[in-house]
């Protein structure tokens, strides 16, 4: 039995996994062209990227903005979420999913997730509906889409807007159509860690012209497409993307399909290698309606009861020592964040309990998407490290 690297042994690998972002001279050339043109602001590159990204995801309209958080906020505003409205959100997600609701005047209501997918549990959503519910905001967590047929049916039955937090799902497809274009609208982020990036940036997609026009007005100081430059029809703000960001994103988009396919292939290879390791629970939900999946991360659960004396954090440290970039994910559900303990939010979250989300925070392990851009042999090293750590679980016990 090989000695674990955390105990001084030789690690499975010493070579780094692929870095991020991926870029080349094409981005440099495009940015240089923008700089030399002197046209740096909200022009042709922004308009072209909106068209190109909307087409890539199968949407009719795209409205760019400064970041993914802003994209969520404008989506909510365009769907007329306002003071007193409730929006059901998952607690296992980045804070923007819930804070965007608060910043648009609504109240986030937390429904639990499914352990098998890390996605919002529609049965718990239905249990949390009230006469004040205006929208549901599911997250396609790690790029795995929620059951959009079920959510759209619920939206039609109850008169709810289904707004997709698609900030993990560039390239994900449900029945051949891209995430973010499946409900009323969807929001994407292009922040530095994302699978397509300009450092920051965001976009909202929709097939609804009215929602697109409202979102455009919000981002562009309340102007409308038929009005004059100094004619403002609502209280908007300035959330416009720059030409430099759009130029970078247009190049990044040309690589996205190939990168998405490569991540899928490596993730399937890793699934096959680690599926039978005791105490490792992969996200193994298979549905023929998922025609392509973006992997923002490879997420799995570490069940400590099958590793006597070994904590999740100890396992993570051992994997990192073997040269595999594993992290532990969110430390607690959103409703346990200090911001949601503040009485001025107008709702007491102290008694909220989402057992699956709390368990996920204790068990989840993440391998971020750049590691899935390597070779099949790089992927095999992840499995080899996991097998090595499992074989030495007794020595690893604290």
Instruction: Classify the fold: give the CATH topology of the largest domain.
Output: Aspartate Aminotransferase, domain 2
Structural class: alpha/beta
CATH architecture of the largest domain: 3-Layer(aba) Sandwich
CATH superfamily of the largest domain: Type I PLP-dependent aspartate aminotransferase-like (Major domain)
Coarse morphology: globular
| Main beta sheet strand tally, sense and closure | 7 strands, mixed
Rg to the nearest angstrom?
22 Å
What count of structural domains?
2
Termini separation comes to 19 Å
Quote the average pLDDT.
96
Number of helices: 12
CATH class of the largest domain: Alpha Beta
Can you give a write-up of this model?
Strands 1-9-8-5-4-2-3 form a seven-stranded mixed sheet, sandwiched between helices. The relative contact order is 0.17. It is an alpha/beta fold and 398 residues long. The protein has helices at 25-37, 44-57, 68-78, 96-103, 122-128, 148-158, 209-219, 243-274, 312-321, 355-363, 376-391, 393-396, and strands spanning 61-65, 86-89, 107-110, 133-136, 161-165, 173-174, 177-178, 185-189, 202-206, 280-282, 290-292, 297-302, 326-327, 364-368. α4 links the parallel β2 and β3 (107-110). It has two domains: 5-17 and 255-396, Aspartate Aminotransferase, domain 1, CATH 3.90.1150; 25-251, Type I PLP-dependent aspartate aminotransferase-like (Major domain) (Aspartate Aminotransferase, domain 2, 3-Layer(aba) Sandwich), CATH 3.40.640.10. The model has no long low-confidence stretch (mean pLDDT 96).
């Amino acid at each position: 039995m090989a000695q674990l690297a955390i105990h001084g042994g030789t690690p499975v690998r010493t070579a780094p996994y692929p870095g991020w972002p991926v870029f080349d001279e094409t981005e440099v050339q495009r940015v240089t062209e923008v700089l030399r043109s002197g046209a740096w602001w909200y022009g042709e590159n922004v308009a072209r990227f909106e068209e190109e990204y909307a087409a890539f995801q199968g949407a009719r309209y795209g409205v760019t903005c400064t970041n993914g958080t802003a994209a969520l906020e404008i989506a909510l505003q365009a769907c007329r979420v306002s003071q007193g409205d409730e929006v059901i959100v998952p607690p296992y997600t980045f804070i923007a999913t819930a804070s965007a609701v608060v910043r648009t005047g609504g109240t986030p209501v937390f429904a639990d997730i499914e352990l098998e997918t890390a996605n919002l549990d529609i049965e718990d959503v239905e249990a949390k509906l009230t006469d004040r519910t205006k929208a549901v905001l599911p997250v396609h967590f790690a790029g795995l889409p929620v059951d959009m047929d079920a959510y759209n049916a619920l939206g039609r039955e109850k008169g709810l807007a289904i707004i997709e937090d698609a900030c993990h799902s560039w390239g994900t497809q449900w029945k051949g159509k891209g995430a973010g274009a499946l409900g009323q609208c969807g929001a994407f982020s292009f922040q530095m860690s994302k699978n397509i990036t300009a450092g920051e940036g965001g976009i909202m997609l929709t097939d609804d012209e009215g929602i697109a026009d409202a979102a455009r007005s919000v981002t562009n100081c309340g102007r409308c497409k038929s009005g004059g430059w100094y004619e403002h029809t609502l209280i908007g703000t300035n959330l416009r993307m720059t030409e430099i960001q759009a130029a970078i994103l247009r190049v990044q988009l040309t690589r996205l399909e190939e990168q998405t396919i490569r991540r899928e292939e490596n993730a399937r290879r890793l699934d096959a290698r680690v599926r039978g390791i005791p105490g490792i629970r992969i996200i193994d939900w298979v549905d023929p309606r998922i025609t392509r999946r973006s992997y923002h991360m490879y997420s799995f659960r570490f069940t400590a009861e099958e590793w006597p004396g070994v904590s999740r954090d100890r396992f993570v440290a051992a994997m990192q020592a073997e040269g595999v970039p594993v992290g532990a994910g969110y430390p607690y559900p959103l409703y346990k964040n200090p911001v949601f303990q503040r009485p001025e939010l107008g709702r007491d979250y102290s008694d909220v309990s989402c057992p699956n989300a709390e368990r996920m925070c204790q068990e989840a392990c993440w391998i971020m998407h750049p590691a899935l851009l390597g070779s099949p042999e790089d992927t095999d090293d992840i499995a080899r490290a996991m097998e090595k750590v499992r074989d030495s679980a007794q020595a690893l016990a604290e």
